Amino acid sequence: MSGIRVCAVQYKLADIDGFDQFAFQVRHYVRNASEYGVQVILFPEFFTTQLLSIGDGTGAALPIGRLPEFTDAYIALFRSLAGEYGVHIIGGTHVVAAEGGKLNNAAHLFYPDGRVEKQAKLHMTPTEREEWNMSPGEGLEVFDTPFGTIAMLTCYDIEFPEIVRMARAKGADIIFCPSCTDDRHGFYRVRYCCHARAVENQVYIVTTGTVGSLRKVDFMRANFGQAAVISPNDIPFPPAGILTEGVMNDDMLVVADVDVRLLHDVRAAGSVTTWRDRRTDLYGDWS
């Protein structure tokens, strides 16, 4: 299969009272996406911090260290939805327990057959490191699917060209980039880097971010996000390299068809052939 339909969710954060409300909202997006015949659904980074707004019974939000307590329920929910709707779901990121009492911010890939794969974020922002006691993942994996090889690189990861080079060298044709940014500066850092990585590596980038607000949860009170499906800037793709994009900060889905064969065409005979023309005599060859 070379052509697939992907969906990215602009997930609207709002305070909730229990896990059932979270599950209801997630199911809504998956059911809606399935009506468009998509094969892959992407949720944003840190969208499960919504669970912290359930609170501790005193009116205060749960601390970030409590989020791993929801891991089993999170996995069960998304595994069930992937099977029920016959889709691959990248369940954004969820904070999981790591060695030494640390936390990982990990993207999860749910297959329709029940398999679950995980990729921890590799580059920590100062807030993740200093305020949330997060530790980075230790390696990059790519994942085989019926529609090609993919990688999951989260938000800040996309700002490091080397890691995307490595993903491409390992065979990834589509990079899924769940994100969470609180203002325009952060949003445009991620967005512009997505475009750069698509041009450099002649890959598709599917990205989305959180919108809305968690009024009780530290560092999640403001969100500025927009989903997009991004291509290389070459014929036969759109001139701006945007297959689709959402309405900024709105609660919505974006859907696009991507064709991996077109990537192979431009790599072989495009206006530019950036992957083939790398000067590996001057700098590293990640393959």
From TrEMBL:
Family matches, as SUPFAM superfamilies: Carbon-nitrogen hydrolase
Native species: Paenibacillus artemisiicola
Protein name: Carbon-nitrogen hydrolase family protein
Keyword Hydrolase among record annotations: yes
Sequence similarity: Belongs to the carbon-nitrogen hydrolase superfamily. NIT1/NIT2 family.
Gene Ontology terms for molecular function: hydrolase activity
PANTHER family: HYDROLASE YHCX, NITRILASE-RELATED
Gene3D superfamilies in the record: Carbon-nitrogen hydrolase
Pfam entry (one): CN_hydrolase
Keyword Hydrolase in annotation: yes
CN hydrolase domain ranges (all copies): 4-260
Any coiled-coil regions, as ranges: none
